[in-house]
Specification:
It contains eleven helices and 18 strands. The chain has helices at residues 40-46, 94-97, 154-157, 163-174, 190-201, 217-223, 235-242, 258-266, 290-296, 310-322, 341-349; strands at residues 2-7, 15-20, 28-38, 56-57, 61-69, 81-84, 116-118, 124-127, 137-141, 145-147, 183-186, 207-211, 227-230, 248-253, 268-276, 299-302, 332-336, 355-359. The strands form three sheets. Strands 3, 5, 6, 9, 10, 17 and 18 form a seven-stranded mixed sheet that branches. It has a six-stranded parallel sheet with strand order 13-12-11-14-15-16, sandwiched between helices. The protein starts with a strand and ends with a strand.
């Protein structure tokens, strides 16, 4: 039996309780978690913004050590350190055939399975976003694991599984930021902090961070921001003023609210790129008129998982970490236990802090 944070129903409080994990069957692996990041997507799953089969063990950003493998597993062995990949590509669907593995139609099929049971009543549990990282141990398909590159601390490596891949990918793969360009990052949580570091690594000139909290300025500047603005109705105007009246070349929206998406669009120069990373609800309606779309010539694009291929990008990120260009620890503002996850959700709703990291 291991401890886990269970979501008994959508909208219900998490319950930290014992769960029974099966021995890993064919093609499956048991992993002892070292750490798991608390992502806004977990909050969105718990409150119903995104759908998840329940009851479930949430958590999708994690790293740990393999403790047992089932039959036919050849890629990893007990003792290997790994990063969880919550969206493994099937390699067969249309998106995969185009090389767009981040849009794989079958990536989340495993979330509908029962992978474990509550110890108290035997009820079946689903693995939230495939990997159920809010637990001391988990059992996952072998293709949900990526080998941890050498030289990366195991605990901080959890952040590579979502926040860093997403923020880095939004800048490098979606917005395609080039050296000397100007960038605005709207929302300075875990993903936003990773995006700021990625913009700095890409060689961006001016990097403007925007958030509702004055307390995040120090975090943002440490990550690479050259300017910091408190989000308001005049944010776009202030960003244009900082860039000679033109607006930034690329804006990265990491909040998922209609007002923030609109501000990111308005802060982008004519012909610039606006990338939406934040996951908003269906009630968040963003409107544009036909004339402005023509006149501004901007590109507005959604960005799933940083448009990343984890197998390709993880070694690249590891290289940045080893070279000192990417600081994983700088994303973490709180290290907690499983019991601290509800409070971490509350901090996200209040716009406080960067990434909370569950350390086992």
């Amino acid at each position: 039996m291991v401890r886990a944070a269970v979501l008994p129903a959508v909208g219900a409080p998490l319950e930290v309780t014992g769960i029974a994990l099966p021995d890993p069957g064919p093609g499956r692996v048991r992993v002892r978690l070292a750490a798991a990041g608390v992502c806004h997507s977990d909050l969105s799953l718990s409150d119903g913004t995104m759908r998840v089969p329940v009851p479930a063990v949430l958590g999708h950003e994690g790293a740990g050590t393999v403790v047992a493998v089932g039959e036919d597993v050849t890629g990893v062995a007990p003792g290997d350190q790994v990063v969880l990949n919550w969206a493994p590509a099937c390699g067969r669907c249309h998106a995969c055939s185009l090389g767009e593995v981040w849009l794989c139609a079958n990536a989340l099929n495993g979330a509908s399975e029962v992978y474990a049971h509550r110890a108290d009543d035997g009820s079946g549990l689903h693995p939230g976003l495939n990997v159920a990282a809010f637990a001391e141990e988990t059992v996952v398909p072998a293709h949900c694991l990526l080998p941890l590159p050498d030289g990366i601390p195991l605990t901080d490596a959890a952040l590579l599984g979502c926040a860093v891949l997403t923020g880095y990918g939004a800048v490098v793969h979606s917005a395609r930021v080039r050296a000397g360009e100007t960038v605005a990052v709207h929302g300075v949580g875990g993903v936003g902090l990773a995006a700021l570091q990625a913009a700095r690594i890409a060689g961006a000139g001016r990097i403007v961070a925007v958030d509702v909290s004055p307390a995040k300025e120090e975090l943002a500047r440490a990550a690479g921001a050259t300017d910091y603005l408190i989000a308001s109705a005049t944010t776009a105007r202030e960003i244009r003023a900082l860039t000679g009246g033109t607006g930034v070349d690329a804006a990265i929206e990491c909040v998922g609210r209609a007002a923030t998406i609109r501000a990111a669009w308005d802060s982008t120069r004519r012909g610039g790129r606006t990338t939406v990373v934040g996951i908003g609800g269906k009630d968040q309606q963003v409107t544009f008129n036909a004339l402005e779309i023509f006149h501004w010539g901007r590109t507005l694009s959604g960005c799933v998982y940083g448009n990343a291929d984890p197998a390709r990008d993880l070694p690249v990120l590891a290289g940045h970490v080893r070279a000192g260009r990417l600081d994983l620890g700088a994303l973490v503002t709180e290290r907690i236990g499983l019991d601290g996850i509800p409070a971490a959700f509350g901090n996200m709703l209040a716009g406080k802090g960067g990434r909370a990291l569950v350390v086992f």
